[in-house]
From TrEMBL:
Residues 290-330, 336-348 have a biased composition (Basic and acidic residues). One of its GO terms (cellular component) is cytoplasm. Residues 204-266 form the Metaxin glutathione S-transferase domain. Residues 53-147 form the Thioredoxin-like fold domain. Residues 1-26, 290-348 are annotated as: Disordered. Residues 7-20 have a biased composition (Low complexity). PANTHER family: FAILED AXON CONNECTIONS-RELATED (PTHR12289:SF41), METAXIN RELATED (PTHR12289). Belongs to the FAX family. This is Failed axon connections-like protein. It comes from the Eukaryota.
Length: 348
């Protein structure tokens, strides 16, 4: 069983999408609504909306730009044609990889979060985004690969629900840990995994410190309003805050408190349903609640049936009721007259 990782190795029970006869990629959502983005990602996590910074990045961007979207509950069955999660479908077309998703959707909807930045600011943003995606995230990945049991505990994940499997929990945990540990070689291949734990944690601290110093006292990285870097930084920082490891959350609390305030600021602004989502683990808490129309109609039919009875049947019931009332009245009269006669006889 392979591990569950965003934009790398998808769940073991996912399936590839075969191309159509016309040579165009097939999509899973065939009854799509025009210009609605359908997001495929991992299941919710009890401590934060997604344990994948890449999935969280895409969904945060969708919220920041107010683009209409819907999470698809695919039960961990699908992955993109690149073998990744997340991916999106829009108007019958698939887009994979979080950076490419954001780039293409920005062009489709005209929603460039960085359009008002200077050239220097855009270059700074690119450097920090690259650091977060390709260096900082590997510190987090290395820890998860090396400590799968601690990761499951810190994230409070239900392994059966996460993997959408009916296998016994103990067996799933065994395969999950085995799969995660087998990915350590990927961290080694990247380079970060060649170092010892103290050195790796130090890499993470330096990245966090660089972000903290650049943010300084500003509410967002480039001033009063958030941009793409804020979206990406928030998504990665949440992994350190809500699934803590290696003393890095403590480092944030002692040396980078402005980053914690930044996370809270983004959370309040773009994730008002955070608590509800983490509690219910529902994918679409941002959408209006659907009214159960069938139950309502059934109730109305029942009520209508009671009100609109057939006239003949109603008249027949009324006649029976009148006759019953007459019988009751007759008996009451007879009963009331009998005591009087008895009392008269007694007096005589």
């Amino acid at each position: 069983m392979t591990s569950v990782q965003a934009e790398e190795t998808p769940a073991s029970n996912t399936t590839n999408t075969a191309p159509t006869d016309k040579g165009k990629p097939a999509v899973h959502k065939t009854d799509y609504e025009k210009d609605v983005v359908y997001l495929y990602q991992f299941t919710r996590c009890p401590t934060l909306p997604s344990a994948s910074p890449f999935c969280l990045k895409v969904e945060t961007w969708l919220r920041m730009t107010e683009v209409r979207y819907e999470n698809v509950d695919h039960k961990m069955k699908y992955k993109s044609k690149k073998g990744q999660l997340p991916f999106v479908e829009i108007n019958g077309v698939e887009i994979a990889d979080s950076d490419i998703i954001i780039k293409e959707l920005s062009q489709i909807f005209g929603k460039d979060l960085d359009e008002n930045l200077t050239l220097d600011q855009k270059n700074v943003s690119h450097a920090f985004v690259s650091m977060l995606n390709n260096h900082t995230s590997w510190v987090m990945r290395w820890w998860r690969y090396s400590h799968p049991g601690e990761f499951l505990k810190a994230a409070q994940l239900d392994i059966k629900r996460t993997l959408n499997s009916k296998l016994p929990k103990g067996l799933l945990q065994f395969f999950f840990k085995l799969g995660f540990k087998s990915n350590i070689k990927r961290a080694v291949g990247h380079g970060v995994g060649r170092h010892n734990s103290d050195e790796i944690y130090e890499f993470g601290k330096k990245d966090l410190k660089a972000l903290s110093e650049y943010l300084a006292e500003k509410p967002y990285f480039f001033g009063e309003e958030p941009h793409l870097l804020d979206c990406v930084a928030f998504s990665h920082l949440c992994q350190f805050v809500y699934i803590p490891f290696g003393g890095l959350k403590e480092y944030l609390e002692s040396d980078c408190t402005n980053l914690l305030s930044f996370v809270e600021r983004m959370k309040e602004r773009y994730w008002p349903d955070w608590e509800e989502m983490c509690k219910s683990l529902e994918l679409n808490t941002h959408l209006p609640k659907k009214v159960e129309e069938p139950l309502k109609e059934e109730g109305e039919k029942k009520e209508s049936k009671e009100v609109e009875e057939p006239t003949e049947e109603k008249n027949e019931k009324d006649d029976k009721a009148e006759k019953l009332d007459e019988k009751i009245e007759t008996k009451e009269e007879e009963a009331s007259e009998k005591p009087k006669e008895d009392s008269n006889e007694t007096k005589e």
